[in-house]
Design goal:
Elements (H helix, E strand, L loop, with lengths): L9 E2 L12 E3 L14 E6 L2 E11 L2 E6 L18
Parallel strand pairs: 1-3
Antiparallel strand pairs: 2-5, 3-4, 4-5
């Protein structure tokens, strides 16, 4: 079950990268796993760090993301397919 993080779709440490050079998380750390799909934009982060990030790939339950530069507010238009919660 995903750890609770307010206003985050995917719990991920944005400062940690694997050999792909991208931050990663387990799909089970997603608040709504059905929204996590390649090409989608989500709010990702942990602690105080938040960013809009694009889902790059999902491989055997590992999700790679590419955080966008700028604040969540400045990138909010990317989050067009989100449902109000």
């Amino acid at each position: 079950m995903a750890r609770s993080q307010p206003n985050v779709d995917l719990v991920v440490d944005l400062n940690t990268m694997d050999d792909t050079g991208l931050p990663w998380a387990f799909l089970t750390d997603a608040v709504h796993p059905d929204r996590i799909r390649p090409g989608a934009y989500v709010i990702a982060g942990s602690g105080q760090a938040r960013a809009v990030a694009q889902i790059i790939d999902i491989d055997e339950g590992i999700v790679h993301v590419r955080p966008l530069r700028g604040s969540v507010t400045s990138n909010r238009e990317r989050l067009t397919d989100r449902h109000a919660s």
